[in-house]
Amino acid sequence: MAEDTMVTAVDGPNGKAEIFEVPQLFAGGGQRFEYEVRFKGVKETYKSLGEAYITAGEKAGVKT
Question: In terms of residue numbers, what domain contains 16?
């Protein structure tokens, strides 16, 4: 089973938001990635790294 990989973290006045790359494996052998923002114990999933990065900045309290 593939593991989540931390891509980056965004630090700000509200705390640190971490972005993880989460592999989604298909039965036929293919895979795609989703991106998960983890902030204060809450996980939110996004289809693109850009969207996850913007959200991480908003949660941390900085413009990304």
Answer: 5-60
